[in-house]
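FW: tagging you since you asked about this chain on Friday. Here's the raw sequence from the shared folder, copied in full. Didn't touch anything.
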Amino acid sequence: MASKKIGIYPGTFDPITHGHTDIIGRAARLLDRLVVGVAINPGKGPIFDIDERVSLVQDEISHLENGIGERIDVQPFSGLLIDFARDVNATVIVRGLRAVSDFDYEFQMASMNAKMAPSVETVCLMASDKYHFIASSLVKEIAKLGGDVTQFVSPRVSKRLNERLNDPKTP
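HL: got it, structure written out here
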């Protein structure tokens, strides 16, 4: 019996966008199990804390069609991605490429990860045409300036962004 192909799709997901959910759905179709690793990365100054980001990703996955969400787990992680990949028995790291400018960074990361764990492959999925321009940082900027982000994120995520950014208690 062949071993199950377990992949990991890491990111900050602050917030999760249509581009992220597209990559998640496509990667899940290629693998037996996909772990979405939500990075604890305070250096990026996330709008949402780790528990909120995990919850948002889980909510988005629950809306995927054809039972795909049943093969996806969402877990927070900190530290080296390659250590997290080992912890969940992943043999594949999934990365999304939006533009040529992403390639240099992803190539360097894939090379470093391959040196640290030669048995873990990095697979890059090209962003779909309709999502290749979406970046969480731009979505946050638009939302902070009062713009409509519903074409980039789900209505659920848009609502949470608006609540967070318009809450006077939030720094």
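FW: The two ends are 53 Å apart (CA to CA).
HL: agreed, and Helices lie at 18-30, 50-61, 81-87, 100-116, 136-144, 155-165.
FW: great, closing this out.
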